[in-house]
Amino acid sequence: MTPRAMNASDRRFVAPTWALSSTYDGLSKPARFRLVDRMLDAGAPVIVLAEGPTVHAWACGEADTLHYVYVPPDLRGFGIAAKLIALALGGYPERINVTHRWPRESSRFVFRPQLTHREAA
Length: 121
Fold this sequence. Notes:
CATH class: Alpha Beta
Radius of gyration: 13 Å
Number of domains: 1
Order of helices and strands: EHHEEEHEE
Shape: globular
Mean pLDDT: 88
Distance between the termini: 34 Å
Number of strands: 6
Number of helices: 3
Largest sheet: 6 strands, mixed
CATH architecture: 3-Layer(aba) Sandwich
Low-confidence stretches: none
């Protein structure tokens, strides 16, 4: 599996896995899809881990802000999320702003939902 920038066909995997695996504090499913589409349409950079045309995991973020990272359960625990985060952010900063709640308690991740412009979702 090789990491690379998302292409147009990868979006068919990225958008639904993002919208369906996120909650964004109670946003409805249609609102999550609108939010994800809006962020991708605005050019939010996505790094995918793929084998040929098949995407297995991905991360979306820029500078010091991680919008989302998705690794399926059977691939978790191998450091894939950390690798994708580092590629998406250009390194693995000491503090990372996240626009979704991080699943585990960590002082590294600072929850900043306002960075997704959720009000228009």
